[in-house]
Amino acid sequence: MSVEGLVRKPRVYELDDLLKISPPEERVYRMRCVEGWSMVIPWAGYSLSKLLDQVEPLSEAKYVAFESLLDPKRMPGQARRVLNWPYVEGLRMDEAMHPLTILASGLYGRTLPPQDGAPIRLVVPWKYGFKGIKSIVKIKLVATQPSTSWNQSAPDEYGFYANVNPQVDHPRWSQATEQRIGDSGMRPTLMFNGYAGQVAKMYAGMDLRANF
Predict the structure, then answer these.
(1) What angle do CA 59, 146, 15 make, to 5 degrees?
(2) pLDDT tens, residue by residue, 158-203
C-alpha cells in the first residue's frame, strides 16, 4: 500500500509493515448498508489515524482519498462496467483521524477473507457501508474533496458524506428503518448509526440534507 500526497514522509508499506503499526483491537461495530439491511460485526484492526500519524500530514491536507486493487482476474465483477474501476473513496481529514475509523485486517476472529476486502479495508461505522472501501492499495492526502465511485456513478443517490441518516431517504426507498440480518422484523435506523454521541459534533451547522 502506498501512502502519498500532502505528507512529509510518503511511504510504500508491505503488508507485514502495516500490521506492525499497532496491535489489532477487536471493534464490535454496527454496519448499515444503504440498501436497508444491517449487521453487527466484530472487526480486528486499528485506528487509521495511527497510520496517518506515521506519514505526518501537511496542514494543506483536508481530505484522504483511497483506491482499491484493480484486478479483474481475481475480482471478476470489475470486468463489468457497473462502476469506473478501480473503486475509489474519500473522507474528510477529521473523519479519517477519528478514533472510530479503522483499518481492518480481520473479522469474527479470523484473517479478513478476499470477499470482505483482504488484506486491508476501511471501516467507518457511522457511514453507510459503501464508504468502507476494500482491498486498499493507495491512500493519498489531498487538499480538495476527492471524487468517489458511487458519487460519480449516481450523484443524486450516493453523496460524498454518506452518513447514516433516517431523515434523508434514498430516492428509491426509505432509510427510516432497517432489517438486521438474523433478526425478524424491521427496526428504526439510528442517526449516525447509533454513534451520534461520538461523531455528531463534526457536522455541527452542516445541512445534512444537502451534504448527504
Answers:
(1) 80
(2) 999 999 999 999 999 999 999 999 999 999 999 999 999 999 999 9
Asked whether the whole model's pTM tops 0.90, one would answer yes
Closest CA to 88 of 27, 34, 124, 130: 130
Please tell me the distance from the alpha carbon of residue 114 to that of residue 112, in angstroms, as a whole number. Answer: 7
Cell 471501516 appears where?
Answer: 123
C-alpha cell belonging to residue 58: 501537511
Burial of residue 63, with CB atoms counted within 10 A of its CB: 0-12 exposed, 13-18 middle, 19 or more buried: buried
- Joined grid coordinates for residue 114: 478476499
Cβ neighbours around 113 below 10 Å, total: 11
Place of cell 454518506: 162
C-alpha cell at 79: 470486468
DSSP string of 113-129, one letter each residue: PGGGTSS-EEE-TTB-G
What are the start-end ranges of the E strands in the chain? 2-5, 11-12, 25-32, 37-47, 63-68, 88-92, 102-107, 110-111, 121-123, 136-142, 177-180, 187-188
The amino acid sitting at 128 is Y
Residue 153 vs residues 2, 16, 120, 173, 201: alpha-carbon distances, Å: 26, 34, 24, 18, 29
